C-alpha cells in the first residue's frame, strides 16, 4: 500500500504577498513548517500534492490573478500535482480522488492555514469519499 499522500491546501500567493490583504498570520512560520512537513513526506516516500482555490471573478485568488498560484516559497516540486477547486472541499475535484485511488492510498494527510474552512471541508470530503 502507498504511503498516505500529503495535501497542501490553499496556500496561495494571495495569502502571503500582502497585495490585497495583510499576509496571513505568522506567514514565515507557516511556510517553514509546511516545507518541513513536505520535505519529511518526500523523504519517507509520501506523495505530495497541492490544492489551489479558484476564487470568483475579481477575487485575488481567481484563476489567472497574481494571487492564484501556489506560493513559490513552499517549494512545490515540478512533479507534484496541483488540484484546483472552487468550493471548500478539495474532493469536489474528481481528479484528486482519482489520483489518490491511483496511488492505492486509503488515507491522506492534510495541511493548510484555514483549518476551520477548506481543511475541514476537505477532511469531510475525504471521509465521504471513503
From TrEMBL:
KW Hydrolase (keyword) present: yes
MF terms in GO: hydrolase activity
Record has Hydrolase as a keyword: yes
InterPro entries (alphabetical): Isochorismatase-like_dom, Isochorismatase-like_hydrls, Isochorismatase-like_sf
Keywords, alphabetical: Hydrolase
Pfam families named in the record: Isochorismatase (PF00857)
Domain Isochorismatase-like: 6-130
Gene3D superfamilies given in the database record: Isochorismatase-like
Protein name from the UniProt record: Isochorismatase family protein
Biological source species: Phenylobacterium glaciei
Amino acid at each position: 500500500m502507498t504511503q498516505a499522500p500529503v495535501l497542501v491546501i490553499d496556500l496561495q500567493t494571495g495569502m502571503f504577498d500582502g497585495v490585497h490583504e495583510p499576509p496571513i498570520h505568522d506567514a514565515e512560520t507557516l511556510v517553514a513548517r509546511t516545507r518541513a512537513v513536505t520535505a519529511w513526506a518526500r523523504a519517507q516516500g509520501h506523495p505530495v500534492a497541492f490544492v489551489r482555490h479558484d476564487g470568483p471573478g475579481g477575487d485575488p485568488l481567481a484563476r489567472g490573478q497574481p494571487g492564484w498560484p501556489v506560493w513559490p516559497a513552499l517549494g512545490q516540486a515540478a512533479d507534484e500535482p496541483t488540484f484546483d477547486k472552487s468550493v471548500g472541499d478539495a474532493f469536489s475535484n474528481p481528479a484528486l480522488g482519482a489520483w489518490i485511488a491511483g496511488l492505492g492510498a486509503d488515507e491522506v494527510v492534510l495541511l493548510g492555514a484555514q483549518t476551520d474552512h477548506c481543511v475541514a471541508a476537505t477532511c469531510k470530503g475525504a471521509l465521504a469519499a471513503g
